[in-house]
Amino acid sequence: MEIFLALSPILSIFLFLFAFKQTSFRSAIFSYFVCLGIVLLFQPFQLHMGEILHATAKGALICFIVAYVLFFGIFLFHLMNQIGLIQSIASFVSDTTNDRMMQTLLICFGICPLIESASGFGIGFMVAAPIFLSLGYPPFQAALLSFIGLLASSWGALATGTIIGSQLVNIPLSVIGSSTAILSTPIFAYMMITSLYIVGGWRAVQEKWLELLGFFLLFSLSIFLFSKYVSVELAGILSPLMTIAFGFIRIKASAAKRKVTYSQSAASLSGENRSIIKILSPYLFLTVCILLSRLIPNVSHTLQSTFILDLPSYSYKLALLYSPGFWLGLTCMFTIMLFHVPFSIVKQSLCSTVRQWIPFAVTTTMFISISEIMGVSGMHQLLAQTAGDAFGKMFMIVTPFIGAIGGFLTGSNAGSNAMFIKLQVQTAQHVGLSWQSISISQNASSSISTIACPSRITLGAYLCNIPSRENELLRTTTLMISGAVMIVLIETVSWLTMFQ
Q1: Which residues, including other chains, have CB under 8 Å from residue 50's CB and lie 6 or more apart?
Q2: Where are the domains of the chain?
Q3: What does the record say about its membrane topology (predicted)?
Q4: How many CA atoms lie within 13 A of 294 on its CB side?
Q5: Structure-model confidence comparison of residues 290 and 140, the more confident one
Q6: Contact in structure between 313 and 323 (CB atoms under 8 Å)
Q7: Which H or E run contains 317?
Q8: Rounded to an integer, what distance in angstroms lies between the CA atom of residue 257 and that of residue 268?
Q9: Number of DSSP helices (H) and strands (E) in the chain, helices first
């Protein structure tokens, strides 16, 4: 009975989402009240109202870390979309190549991961989806491909989630980063093949096998080498830059064979005089700012010690100026000034941002609060201990699914690691498994499952203007991500079986 009660908040989320076909917003609220009822009425997990409010407030504070970034990310998108920059990026890609497959590879494994690694929290998706729509991709297809572009979420927001995992279990960052890259390599191949299949079926995969192989080898090898020998934080930025360069080189080589002029189409954008550098300047500005804030010690120290939101009673600390959210806000101001955006457009973009941001913020707060309440009430500990006792060394089979559930619920690798990585490690030590391998499996599975986070699916459905297909989008994305989690499972079991 206690196990069922401990599982009930998680099961209720799936029940409301898939059985009753409720939106993520409603499912989150209903599931929160299910969790609330359990900790108020049932003795094994009973909490006082003060403890519940404390856990809920902490959930809201954790959500604020994400919401702070996301608000300005959505605002930047609306600004760029209103003044035509998103369309200009789409035109550049379109003018560079008419090949649908190459467009897909460039956006999914170049542009989207680059922006996501610089800013995190799904912002890469918010940029990629409008580009796909502008290129004429069907809305449902555009949403799926944009989610695939988040395949390197372990390195999102300068690898924030991986850094948290490293600190919580005391593993060197280069070790957990490079090991996650190894574990993610088959997932990269799976996602690249899936992207081409979505656009053109198996025939597209067969026709573009050489380009697919090139993108895969360059992306996976570079992200591993940069993580191991350069910097985990920068690996997610440098690797997509290399794949983008490879893509344009490949396109240019192909155009030369067909005697098609490449430089002219790449230099001009549908007759516009804007250069690609100016069009991408908001993202370049954002990337440079974030890099400088991390790479220059004096700047980094100043930002981390100024304007700190410090709440010791919640074990909560947020450097407001060090967060990507601050730099995104600065980038919005930069964009407004550089392109002389009229006040009417700024106001309209702000209103659109608020309408999209509020459901996401409420949904994410509810999910994280559920996790916090479960942790405080002992539900997490009971589930981990029970799993360890029930499975023994076969707990390795459960590990990827625990990580995946955390990523699915919170939409954040950082949130999932904060919730589960210590419990995973404790359980691994309890049953005699390699806790380092278990923590790496947790990091990989939680990051890839953030793609299917219900609140992110909601945002994607509205962004692509298909709110009526939200449940269909959730089912399809969940099925796709389940395949990636199964890959992590096979790798985890194989690794621990051979080397345990």
Answers
A1: none
A2: 2-499
A3: Multi-pass membrane protein
A4: 19
A5: 140
A6: no
A7: strand 316-319
A8: 21
A9: 24, 2
Classified as helix, coil or strand, 268 is: coil
How far does CA 297 lie from the centroid of its chain?
27
Q: What one-letter code names the amino acid at 200?
A: G
CB-based contacts of 493, cutoff 8 Å, min separation 6? 396, 397
Which residues make Cβ contacts (< 8 Å) with residue 395, sequence separation at least 6? 387, 388, 427, 428, 431, 433
Share of the chain above pLDDT 90, in %: 33
CA distance 275 to 92: 10
Q: How far apart are CA 94 and CA 113, in angstroms?
A: 19
Phi, psi of 305 (to 5 degrees): -120, 5
**C-alpha 411: how far from its chain's center?**
7
Rounded Cα gap, residues 97 and 385, in angstroms: 54
- Cβ pair 322, 293 in contact under 8 A: yes
pLDDT, tens only, 294-351: 778 898 889 989 889 999 888 788 889 987 789 889 999 999 999 999 999 999 999 9
CA dist list (Å): 494 to 154, 172, 305, 378, 480: 22, 23, 44, 32, 22
- Residue 21: left if φ>0, alpha if ψ -120 to 50, beta else—which one? left
Q: Residue 308: helix, strand or coil by DSSP?
A: strand
The gap from C-alpha 62 to its chain's centroid, in whole angstroms, comes to: 16
Q: Tell me, what DSSP letter sits at residue 319?
A: E
Enumerate the β-bridge partners of residue 308: 319
Token pair 């590990």 in the structure block, residue = 399
Rounded Cα distance between 159 and 238, Å, is 13
72's tokens: 């300005």
Radius of gyration of the chain (CA): 22
Phi, psi of 309 (to 5 degrees): -90, 100
Cβ atoms of 46 and 363 closer than 8 Å: no
State the residue for tokens 């989690």: 485
How high does pLDDT run on average in the chain? 85
Spatial distance between the Cα atoms of 500 and 495, rounded to a whole number of angstroms: 8
Concatenate the DSSP letters of all residues of 143-202 into one string. Answer: HHHHHHTTTTGGGHHHHHHHHHHHHHHT--HHHHHHHHHHHHHHHHHHHHHHHHHHHHHH
The separation between CA 111 and the C-alpha centre of its own chain, rounded to angstroms, equals: 14
pTM, two decimals, is 0.75
What whole-number distance in Å separates Cα of residue 361 and Cα of residue 109?
28
Tokens of 325: 């959210």
260: region left, alpha or beta (phi > 0 left; psi from -120 to 50 alpha): beta
Q: What tokens appear for 253 in the block?
A: 């080589």
